[in-house]
């Protein structure tokens, strides 16, 4: 809301500056959602960024914003939200 109602018209990165690899992300999701799936590696596309660490300096300066949820906690919240929206029950461990 602050960005939308403000005077800044340029792009502002909103993200988490904690850098992690796509494999680390996949392993975290796998562990949380379904530890039995297999993570498959494929070739990157030519335009795939080598760095996935957004510079959020402008968000801090213009919006007084920075992330407050770490990746792992955010994935849990995302899973819960998606399951609720899609009416998909969480699998119980045997």
Automatic annotation (TrEMBL):
<dbReference type="InterPro" id="IPR044516">
    <property type="entry name" value="UXS-like"/>
</dbReference>
<protein>
    <recommendedName>
        <fullName>UDP-glucuronate decarboxylase</fullName>
    </recommendedName>
</protein>
<dbReference type="GO" id="GO:0042732">
    <property type="term" value="P:D-xylose metabolic process"/>
</dbReference>
<dbReference type="GO" id="GO:0070403">
    <property type="term" value="F:NAD+ binding"/>
</dbReference>
<keyword id="KW-0456">Lyase</keyword>
<dbReference type="GO" id="GO:0048040">
    <property type="term" value="F:UDP-glucuronate decarboxylase activity"/>
</dbReference>
<keyword id="KW-0210">Decarboxylase</keyword>
<dbReference type="GO" id="GO:0005737">
    <property type="term" value="C:cytoplasm"/>
</dbReference>
<keyword id="KW-0520">NAD</keyword>
<dbReference type="InterPro" id="IPR036291">
    <property type="entry name" value="NAD(P)-bd_dom_sf"/>
</dbReference>
